[in-house]
Amino acid sequence: MDRPETPKKDDGKKLKKKDKLAELEQQNGELTLDLQRVRADFENYRKRSEADVSAARQTGGDAMITKLLPVIDTLERAIAHTPSDLADNAWVKGVTGTAKKLEKLMNDLSIERIDAKVGDEFSPERHYAVQYDEDSEGEFEVVTEELQAGYSRNGKMIRQAMVKVARANEVRVNAGANDDTAEVADA
Q1: Could you give the CA distance from residue 101 to residue 107 in angstroms, rounded to a whole number?
Q2: Which of 13, 47, 136, 179 is deepest in the core (most CB within 10 A)?
Q3: With helix as H, strand as E and coil as C, how does the chain read?
């Protein structure tokens, strides 16, 4: 009579090693995926943190600039109303020099003055109308006077230009350009 073969002890060890190897490979795969997720999460966190810091700097800078604008407005009004007999006065030249330094600083900070010249088409995104001539007639709403300068920083509005508005039959075509030779369009 033949006896059924009994599994050898070595076969059992081989099965256990294969099972253990498969289990370790599965754990390795799971840990690798976990590590990849943690790395991706950290990279996303780092990018969000950098964006948050940048946004905070921008917001803080905008807030500081907003507080500085009334000082600039006051200097500009003082210079505009300087009596002609005091134009060569050293003190007046000092105030004018201070205003020029502030203007250079604003350019360095990417702050741009919003043009609101007479004849420019009124734009609610760039202009804040504080007075409107109800009796005027025409197809276009145009700026008739700039009362207070407006400013933007990196394309974002800090303060709209405060203007008077009226209706007119023509408007400057290159409104907003720093060019005094803008064309005029008829209605």
Answers
A1: 10
A2: 136
A3: CCCCCCCCHHHHHHHHHHHHHHHHHHHHHHHHHHHHHHHHHHHHHHHHHHHHHHHHHHHHHHHHHHHHHHHHHHHHHHHHCCCHHHCCCHHHHHHHHHHHHHHHHHHHCCEEEECCCCCEECCCCCEEEEEECCCCCCCEEEEEEEEECEEEECCEEEECEEEEEEEECEEECCCCCCCCCCCEEEC
pTM: 0.64
Q: Which residues pair with 111 in a beta bridge?
A: 153
How confident is residue 6, by pLDDT bands cut at 50, 70 and 90? low
